[in-house]
Each structure stands twice: as C-alpha cells, then as structure tokens.
Specification:
The chain is built from eleven helices and ten strands. By secondary structure, the protein is α/β, with parallel strands linked by helices. Strand 1 and strand 2 form a beta hairpin. The structure holds octanoyl-coenzyme A (CO8). The site of octanoyl-coenzyme A has 24 residues, from helix 2, strand 6 and helix 4. Pfam families: ECH_1.
C-alpha cells in the first residue's frame, strides 16, 4: 500500500480500508489529511479490484473536526479566494459505496465527513456533534444540510444550536447511523458489510448509490424516472443475466462486474 502521513490504507479482498491516522490531534482534519484522504479515495474509486470502501478512525476518535489550530487565523478574503473547505466535499464525488465506521468522536467536520459517506455504522461509545457554534462559527461542510436531511429539523437544530453531542444510540434512533456495534467489533462488521456489497455487480452497485443520492436533489417524479431508467439499463449488463440465471438454476451468481 502507498505510504501516507495522515492516513493508512489497506486492502481486504475487494474492500479498501482507509484509516484516519493523526492520533495526536484526535484525527483533526487539516489540509494535508484531506488531500491524502481524497487522493486515496480517488485511487480506490478507479481501481477495478475494489468494490467498496470503509473509512474509519481510531477507537477514541473518528475525527474531532476541522483542525482548529490550522484555521484559527484564517480571514474571510483568504477563505473566499481559496474556497476554504470547497474541496473537502470531493468525497461525495466517489462513485463506489463508502461505509463510515465511527468510533469515538465524530464532531464538526468529522461528523460532516461521516455524513458524506453512504452508510454510517457506529461503535457503541461513538459521539456525534456539530460544536462549531461554541467556536464562534457554524458547520461548513454539510452540518446544516446533510444532517437536517438525515435527522430532521428538530434534532438538527438542537445539535447545531446547542453544540451538544449525541450518543450512538441516539444517532441510531434519529436515523443518522444505520447500525451500532460494540466498539471493538465495529470495523470488522463494517468490512463484512462492505464485502457483501463488493460481492455484487460493481456497475449495478454504483447505479444504486447514484439513484439513492439523487433522491436528495430531484423531485419525486424525476427521481422515479431516473430510477426506472437505471433499472431498465441494468438489463444491459452481463451481471443482470448472470444474477437472474443463477436464481433460476438455484446456484450462487458469479458476477464479473460487466
Ligand atoms: N483541531 C485541532 N486540534 C484538536 C481538535 C481540533 N478539532 N480536536 C482535538 N484536538 C487536539 C487537542 O488540541 C489536543 O492537542 P494537545 O494534546 O496538543 O493539546 C489533542 O487533540 C487531544 O484533545 P483533548 O486533550 O482536547 O482531548 P479530550 O479527550 O480532553 O477532549 C474533545 C476531546 C471533546 C473532542 C475535544 O478535543 C474537543 O472539543 N475538540 C474540538 C471539537 C470541535 O470543536 N470540533 C469542531 C471543529 S470546527 C469544524 O469542524 C468546522 C467544520 C468545517 C468543515 C469540515 C469539512 C470536512
């Protein structure tokens, strides 16, 4: 695997695992880390041998937010001219599924990065929050938008305006996370799900991800239209023929991602 300074990458079969690795700052997201993260994700997105990605941190912190020490002296003109944080959402341009496996703190930009992923699994000690208000700023990478879409106005306002954290259990109840696991089993469980996803036809998985994500952008009739077209198009793949043949012949399918 390629050597990075702020992240680690590994492969387990068709699953790529990216681990945020700035332990001395609780994985606070600085420009160098985000650059490496986006680089690694782009590389795995382009790799035909990768079918799904798991993004995780340490047991103490997924990420405790943007690096406060790095940004504290920024001024408006600098932020604006450099489009500060603009590139951080590149994660959302990755076309393969990403599971965020969140142990410990997912605060501010950490929570926002998790929400840029497709599925969030949490360890039972995880804490989610948007504490920017305590620092004299507001969420800058989806904490007022993706969070509101995920949990609704009441909960999002409560988090964004008080800066309070919620537990994994509360995050589960409010629909922010899909599942909660004991902390020490979290990454293994995320990899297990990622392997299941990666065992399916990659182009079909990519269509499914794109279709679900479009539901946030399109009207219902446009979204249903897109879904139906993708569904129709899926019959143009070898994998649809294989999947339905295998069902009829009562055997396991052998998807070739074509
Ligand atoms: N930035 C820089 N350094 C950090 C950060 C951070 N966000 N979080 C923790 N650290 C550092 C601490 O300064 C400390 O360093 P040192 O040992 O040199 O003093 C080290 O990590 C360990 O942290 P603590 O000693 O504070 O550990 P505790 O266990 O006592 O507390 C907390 C853990 C509660 C998580 C605490 O560290 C904390 O409150 N951190 C800040 C959380 C926060 O406010 N996050 C929001 C940041 S603003 C933001 O994210 C804007 C969003 C921008 C969009 C991002 C797009 C992806």
């Amino acid at each position: 695997a390629k050597e990075y300074e702020n992240i680690k990458t590994e492969r387990d079969g068709r699953v790529a695992i990216v681990t945020l690795n700035r332990p001395k700052a609780l994985n606070a997201l600085n420009a160098a880390l985000m650059k490496e993260l986006n680089e690694a994700l782009r590389e795995f997105d382009a790799d035909n041998e990768v079918g799904a990605i798991v993004l995780t941190g340490s047991e103490k912190a997924f990420a405790a937010g943007a690096d406060i020490k790095e940004m504290k002296d920024n001024n408006f003109v600098q932020n604006f001219k450099n489009n500060f944080l603009g590139g951080w959402a590149d994660i959302t341009t990755i076309r393969k599924p990403i599971i965020a496996a969140v142990n410990g703190f997912a605060l501010g930009g950490g929570c926002e990065v998790a929400m840029m992923c497709d599925i969030i699994y949490a360890g039972d000690k995880a804490k989610f929050g948007q504490p920017e208000i305590k620092l004299g700023t507001i969420p800058g990478a989806g904490g007022t938008q993706r969070l509101t879409q995920a949990v609704g106005k009441a909960k999002a306002m409560d988090l964004v305006l008080t800066g309070n954290m919620i537990s994994a259990e509360e995050a589960l109840q409010s629909g922010l996370v899909a599942k909660v696991f004991p902390a020490d089993q979290l990454v293994a469980e995320a990899v297990k799900s990622a392997k299941t996803i990666a065992s399916y036809s990659l182009p079909i998985v990519m269509m499914a991800k794109e279709a679900v994500n479009k539901s946030f952008e399109l009207t219902l009739s446009e979204g249903l239209h897109l879904e139906r077209r993708f569904f129709q198009a899926s019959f143009g793949t070898k994998d649809q023929k294989e999947g339905m043949a295998a069902f009829s012949e009562k055997r396991a399918p052998n998807f070739t991602h074509e």
